[in-house]
Design goal:
Length: about 160
């Protein structure tokens, strides 16, 4: 019995193992590796497309933020302008209202003063008339008669000193 492993090699087995190995390699390549490579390439393409879309989205977001900041700035400027205009209009309206009220008050005050002066004149005339009557009555009772002109002059003199 020969125990040399080289003598035990059978060329048919070696050829058949090589054929089986080659067929297995070809089948694995065709059924597994090529589809796997194709799936990985499609995945890489989708990832590249997704990255491009992500970059485009980031660009759009940056542009939108810039536009939003610009819009916010314009809106703030417009609000400030409207606020200033409103304050100016309010101040103008307040001034006009106060001026109109002051003019009306001045008119009413002048009317009141003229009424008071008129009432004073009426009261003075009434007081003078009543004082002249009272003095004439008192003189008539005390002296029996009175000079109406001197009584009127005395009352006018007394009233002039007291009133003014």
């Amino acid at each position: 019995m020969d125990l040399n492993p080289l003598n035990q090699l059978n060329p048919y087995v070696i050829v058949s193992v090589m054929i089986v190995f080659s067929v297995t390699g070809v089948l694995l390549r065709k059924l597994f590796f090529l589809p796997y490579i194709e799936v990985m390439e499609r995945r890489a393409q989708r990832l590249e497309a997704a990255d491009a879309m992500f970059e485009e989205a980031e660009r759009i977001v940056v542009e939108a933020e810039a536009e939003a900041a610009e819009g916010t700035t314009r809106a703030r400027e417009k609000v400030d302008l409207l606020l200033r205009e409103t304050r100016e209009k309010t101040e103008t309206y307040r001034r006009e209202t106060v001026d109109a009220a002051m003019a009306e008050v001045a008119t009413l005050l002048e009317q009141g003063r003229s009424r008071i002066a008129e009432a004073r004149e009426n009261e003075m005339t009434s007081l003078r008339t009543q004082a002249v009557e009272c003095v004439n009555l008192a003189c008539s009772k005390l002296m029996g008669s009175s000079d109406e002109e001197s009584t009127t002059a005395a009352v006018d003199k007394l009233l002039a000193r007291r009133v003014h």
